Amino acid sequence: MDKRPVIMKRFTSHILSSVKEEDTDTSNMSAPNIANQPTPSYYPPGWNREQLLNRSQKELFALPTEQLDTLCKGLKAELGPQRFGAFLEEMGRTREARYDAARGDASSATNLRCSPSFIQILQYQYPSQPWGFVVFRTSSYSNQDRWTAFRRRWDEIVAPQIDEYIALPGVREAKRNLTFRWVEDPTLEDASISEIASRYRALPALPGLKHSVCLAVTPSSLSSTLDSPLPSPGSRRERGRIPFAVAVDKQYLERDYYGAEDDDIGGQLPNGHFNVALETLLQELFPLVGDQSRSPGEIGGHVRGDDVWCSGDRFGVHKAEGN
Length: 323
What we know:
Layout: H1 9-16, H2 49-54, H3 57-61, H4 65-102, H5 117-125, E1 131-137, H6 144-163, H7 171-177, E2 178-184, H8 193-202, E3 213-217, H9 219-227, E4 244-249, H10 262-265, E5 273-277, H11 281-290, H12 296-300, E6 308-309, E7 317-318
Parallel strand pairs: 1-2, 1-3, 5-6
Antiparallel strand pairs: 3-4, 4-5, 6-7
């Protein structure tokens, strides 16, 4: 059995006993840069910050309970609950990378241990064929330069989502097959959500591209993409706004959103759409719509107003400025 030394039970028990779950959300946190800083007095004798990241499970287990308590409390006091959680996750990743290297695991060379979720969907449902999304242009028909700048920025945001996995099997082929079918028609300028959904339903079957939702570039989503700095200056939580497109439910207004029982609906989008982060289109949104594991309402039904869906976990919604 592959028993990886991720984060020792004895170490994490000190966190769980004193820190609430919501305080340790690290989904949008980066590990604090603690290398090259003075070593605090609460560290075990002879240890420094960089060494702490690389200590083995055996060495941490060997610490006296009182010394381990002092270390945990000192780290939590210095970093705060969230950054402390991010630091613990970094310790786990460091140990797993060392473990992989010792086993000769090829993925350790790129610090990756498994294929991205979109690869798994492609292998089973869309092998060796185009995959991606249908995207409707509903803005900037009178300003082609602005649209060209947007398309360039779109590519800059999407490309890293697949390039970071390029050394893994199947990813190069997936990159070649990645397709965004752009629907451009001046009559779509400022089109309503219901009109976009209707136009989307009218398209022929496009396996790998035509899902339960399409994407739309509205004036607000176009502005969010052009006005957000690249590369991103920090974690999503620390940023005021992030680039997004609008995900539109294909069936919006074709069915009775309000007349059916909840069990019959399975979770709907009352407004037929939600904002989705461009930076998570491939890794987070595509797997959910690609294998039809969740309805549009189940994916984005909890997104409100100008908030942006980033992932399917409980902390996966980026709150808009002022919310």
